[in-house]
Amino acid sequence: MRFSTLMKHPAEWMTGASDDSSIVLTSRIRLARNISDVPFPGWARKPERIEIMTRLRPAVESLTEMRNAFSQQLSELTSVQKQVLVERHLISREQAARNEGSAAVVNRDQTLSVMINEEDHLRLQSIRSGLHLREAYKLITKIDQQLEKSLPYAFDHELGYLTACPTNVGTGLRASAMLHLPGLVISDHIGQVIQAVAKLGLAVRGIFGEGTESLGHLFQISNQSTLGETEDEIINRLERVICKVRDHERNARIKLAEDDPQMLADKIGRAYGLLRHAYVIDSKEALTHLSLIRLGGDMGCFPKEVISLCDTLLMDIEPAHLQHISDKKLTPEQRDIIRAEIIRDRLQNIPTPDIGTLDNQSKQEND
């Protein structure tokens, strides 16, 4: 599959395909694996990395789940193409910075990707819409077991799977979910929730993971350690916490509609008006307002299909996506103009928000 083909179709997890994705947008499972008889990528010389990639890439491409997949060496992609893959969460920012001896393999619906020679020899990743960590883990386990039959994994009977970073030693599993939490942010309770989650040994990060800020009221929650717990224990603990955060977000939305429906209506209405008529808008502002439109869709102010429209836009207005669509390098000012144009075009058939639904929710809570 060519890069252009990959770009033509949004992944199912990008379109709000799951019925329960209004708050939990996506679930992701990632496994770190290394080969026992060769140096880890960070220690390998360039010829060794190329040799390792040449050995691993056919094994990944031969998987049934990777039939007709997109498979490319990072050195053969432009900087914009690599950044597009980062924006789609198919490769990491760290891998995008690598060139010779690194590759990515992505299945057709973009729910499964394998990074070769990132920090570890293999990073296996599955993404699902909504809170479906178990489904993502089931797929990753299947391909992991297939690869282990033909590849000598670096494994210690006491420590578990050996990885480049000590925090991944053990299961090598990172489980995470992306949550949309505007209710907690607007009600100023997000700080308390983040602190509570951190005390449970979980990490809360921004939209693109470690070291990134939260944009569009989006937060990633993931496990921090992989040693001393089984895969089931890690996933069970994360699911419990995510369900609690999801409940807090629902309650925060209800409370906002009950206590100050006019304030909430004003935020949603202003976001709608600005996005429908803005001619210049930067990425941060656009994501914030799209978050409020998405909130309005979940609270009945807009038709339900607005949620999937916003999810697709969240990706399509990212800087690299805009440059790929334009097929040329753009200045930040040019991106801001094109971003506004795309949003105006996509939202032109969306009706004005039905603010009465917020008053109705408030009355229902008081009755």
UniProtKB/TrEMBL annotation:
It holds the Pfam family ATP-gua_Ptrans. A motif (RDXXRA motif of the pArg binding pocket involved in allosteric regulation) lies at residues 335-340. It comes from the Bacteria. GO terms for biological process: phosphocreatine biosynthetic process. One of its GO terms (molecular function) is protein arginine kinase activity. Coiled coil: none annotated. Its EC number is 2.7.14.1. It catalyses: L-arginyl-[protein] + ATP = N(omega)-phospho-L-arginyl-[protein] + ADP + H(+). PANTHER family: ARGININE KINASE 1-RELATED, ARGININE OR CREATINE KINASE. Catalyzes the specific phosphorylation of arginine residues in proteins. HAMAP family: Prot_Arg_kinase (MF_00602). This is Protein-arginine kinase. It comes from Oceaniferula marina.
